[in-house]
Design goal:
With 460 residues, the protein is an alpha/beta fold. Helices cover 33% and strands 16% of the residues.
């Protein structure tokens, strides 16, 4: 049987542009597809071409082949094309004991024997669409590093904020939540700056919406950034938080943020009745489309006096209390429920997932972020792997979205992970379409399923 090899070089340059994102490509810039011509099948007036993408040889491509009927006739006549030989059974290391097979009808390892098999049966997935990126902003022009959170900054709202959002969108993260640092001179005991329509947060929202109309913006509804007392509510002289008066201020704050263009307002104050009151205030002002994202802080070290944080945070020992809060918030018009912090309370996330029809969110707080960062710096852990595992755990527990300071880094990691397995990457929709159109004209035998691409407008 005679065979000759014809080479079909396909040069595919890497494309850099607005829609290119992720890590540096790991595949060669040139892919060569080899074609083997087989000429010894009796009764076949034409030739059969076999396309391979593993050999590197040069030569022109020729379009020759058989019809389906001719191929079937050849096989029926006994002229069956030869396939590669069956691979030999891998040899065991020297000294391996010879033992009878265990009488197991089910071996779960079978579904994990290769990366492709593992991916096929993966029950939980994670993508950049699951992330909400918390961003700190201030009135200054420069981006100020946050010492306890490596890689995080207090961003200038005019420039640094816009640039960071652009980086996030490039890798598919299109949801952010804003946390302001308000000048001390504007803070009062009643937090009136919280509902200033020309305050820091409303200005930042308007700026972002002007540049990125489709950006999803979450806001924090609480008085602590605006209070001279540093608490989420108005504090009476005996140290008691004034619930109803605080709710009145929160309603004005939520309406001001919605007026600026916020998509989701997020009460984190834990005042009783504030969900219903804010919903009513938003609806009365024509903001029926604005969601309420309810944040539940669970008791942790806050640095506040016990009198204050005990009035706000739920007792970490109580899971039934979470159900009470969930039922109350649902009845008052909550759209999303969030557990903060996330990783220590996976059981609460699962409880809410099983009991509530609402979307569930988790906040991977600064402490969780900083611990992973510190472990990575000290070389005690693989930072990237632990980061991705912690995020996957939150998803597996039932979180639909995750507020995480790792949003940008994790999204870049996901893009790089996909690129590792893909053959062609980094093309805009237009350039890839043109390449495929011209290539398939000259080589119709190439399977389209072998080509996968990713752009910032369509992250898998």
């Amino acid at each position: 049987m005679a065979s000759s090899i014809f080479n079909a070089p396909c040069t595919v340059p890497a494309v850099k542009g607005k829609n290119y994102f992720g890590l540096k490509p790991t595949v060669p810039s040139k892919l060569r597809f080899n074609v083997a011509k087989k000429t010894s099948i009796e009764g076949c007036p034409k030739v059969v071409f076999i396309v391979r993408a593993c050999e590197k040889k040069d030569g022109p491509i020729k379009k020759l082949g058989l019809s389906d009927a001719e191929c079937e006739a050849a096989v029926a006549a006994g002229n069956v094309p030869k396939a590669p030989p069956v691979p030999p059974k891998p040899a065991a290391p020297a000294g391996t004991p010879v033992v009878p097979s265990l009488p197991l009808s089910r071996r779960p390892r079978r579904n994990r024997k290769s990366p492709a098999m593992r991916a096929s049966f993966q029950e939980t997935s994670i993508s950049a669409a699951n992330f909400v990126y918390p961003l700190f902003i201030h009135e200054g022009q420069e981006d100020t590093p946050i010492g306890a959170m490596p890689g995080c900054y207090r961003l200038g709202w005019r420039h640094g904020l816009v640039e960071e959002v652009a980086k996030a969108r490039d890798v598919g993260v299109n949801s952010i939540v804003l946390f302001p640092k308000v000048p001390d001179a504007l803070k009062t005991s009643t937090g009136d700056e919280a509902y200033n329509d020309n305050g820091l947060v409303p200005r930042a929202i308007r700026l972002l919406k002007d540049k990125y109309p489709d950006l999803v913006i979450y806001t924090d509804v609480a008085l602590d950034p605006y209070s001279s007392d540093g608490h989420d509510g108005i504090v009476r002289e005996d140290g008691v938080i004034m619930n109803d008066e605080t709710v009145y201020q929160l309603c004005k704050q939520a309406v001001s943020q919605a007026r600026a263009g916020a998509d989701v307002v997020s009460p984190s104050d834990m005042m009783d009745g504030r969900v219903g009151a804010i919903r009513e205030a938003l609806d009365a002002e024509g903001f029926q489309h604005v969601c309420q994202f309810i944040l539940w802080p669970i008791s942790r070290g806050t640095g506040l006096k016990p009198t204050f944080w005990r009035q706000k945070d739920m007792n970490l020992a109580n899971y039934r209390e979470a159900l009470v809060e969930a039922h109350a918030d649902e009845s008052e018009g909550a759209d999303i429920l969030l557990v903060k912090p996330g990783l220590p309370y996976l059981d609460i996330i699962r409880l809410l997932r099983d009991k509530s029809p609402l979307p569930i969110a988790a906040y991977q707080v600064s402490g969780e972020y900083s611990m992973i960062k510190a472990g990575g710096v000290l070389k005690m852990i693989d930072e990237e792997r632990v980061m991705m595992e912690s995020l996957m755990c939150l998803r597996r527990a039932g979180a639909d979205i995750i507020l995480t300071y790792f949003a940008l880094q994790a999204a870049r990691c996901l893009c790089g992970e996909k690129r590792h397995h893909w053959d062609l990457i980094g093309f805009t929709n237009t350039s890839l379409t043109n390449i495929l159109f011209h290539f398939f004209q000259s080589s119709p035998v190439l399977s389209f399923s072998s080509l996968v691409f990713c752009t910032s407008k369509a992250v898998p």
